[in-house]
């Protein structure tokens, strides 16, 4: 079954207001920039986003955030996005902060049909006990706080119950993909992309290099999880911004 899509606009056309979207990437590495820009162009708003972080002020998910299109974020890191911090502290944005490993496992669990799991991460903190600010009020008070989580003891150690994440859509970026939706990710750009791709009811992949068929040993995410494949142009594939460029002393970039 050929899953290729002719344009980014067509690929995201059914992402409507209020949709839940899981988005791959870490910082600006492995981020599906072309698909994010297409969602922005579509006008979809009140989005509920699950991603490690929310990009920077003018790249990645920061484009949607700056336009006021995101209502809720589930993630691990605020990062370098000043607008993210401003909206959160001003009560304009609901934010569920999750330990990074827990976030990855919640996405993977959603993809394999495991509804919940126990983990020691967060035991004895506001992650487990509740009270973590999800949304602030205009006066700076906590308007919505995280609820306490169920605790069970296994072999004498406390564990908290974490629920799986499944989103309406997932957006990922792969280095290579075939027409059947099988994907291969490159080095650190793999990051959250495989588990994000598993967690979408409809997963859309932008692919830098489209091939007829991937060797099974190369596949990082099987096509069973992927419904749409968007081949990128050479210019789109080369667009890989660096979040913070540094060089060694005495060298020039």
From TrEMBL:
Domain of life, per lineage: Bacteria
InterPro entries: 3-oxoacid_CoA-transf_A (IPR012792), CoA_trans_fam_I (IPR004165), CoA_transf_BS (IPR004163), NagB/RpiA_transferase-like (IPR037171)
Keywords (A to Z) from UniProt: Transferase
Molecular function terms, GO-annotated: CoA-transferase activity
Gene3D superfamilies found in the cross-reference section: Glutaconate Coenzyme A-transferase (3.40.1080.10)
Residue stretches spanning the membrane: none
Family: Belongs to the 3-oxoacid CoA-transferase subunit A family.
Protein name (database record): 3-oxoacid CoA-transferase subunit A
């Amino acid at each position: 079954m050929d899953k290729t899509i002719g344009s980014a606009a067509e690929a995201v056309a059914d992402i409507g207001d209020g949709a839940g979207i899981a988005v791959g990437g870490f910082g600006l590495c492995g981020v599906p920039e072309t698909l994010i820009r297409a969602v922005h162009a579509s006008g979809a708003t009140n989005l509920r986003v699950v991603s490690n972080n929310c990009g920077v002020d003018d790249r990645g998910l920061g484009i949607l955030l700056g336009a006021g299109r995101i209502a809720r974020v589930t993630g691990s890191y605020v990062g370098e996005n000043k607008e993210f911090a401003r909206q959160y502290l001003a009560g304009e944005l609901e934010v569920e902060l999750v330990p990074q490993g827990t976030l990855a496992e919640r996405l993977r669990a959603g993809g394999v049909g495991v509804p919940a799991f126990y983990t020691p991460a967060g035991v004895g903190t506001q992650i487990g006990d509740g009270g973590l600010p999800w949304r602030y009020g205009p006066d700076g008070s906590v308007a919505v706080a995280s609820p306490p989580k169920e605790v069970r003891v296994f072999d004498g150690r406390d564990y908290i119950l974490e629920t799986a994440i499944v989103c309406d859509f997932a957006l990922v970026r792969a280095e290579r993909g075939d027409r059947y939706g099988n994907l291969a990710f490159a080095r650190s750009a793999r990051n959250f992309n495989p588990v994000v791709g598993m967690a979408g009811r409809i997963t859309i992949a932008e692919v830098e290099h489209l091939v007829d068929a991937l060797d099974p040993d190369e596949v990082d995410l099987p096509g069973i999880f992927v419904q749409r494949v968007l081949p990128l142009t050479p210019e789109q594939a080369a667009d890989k911004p660096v979040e913070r460029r540094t060089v060694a002393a005495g060298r020039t970039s």
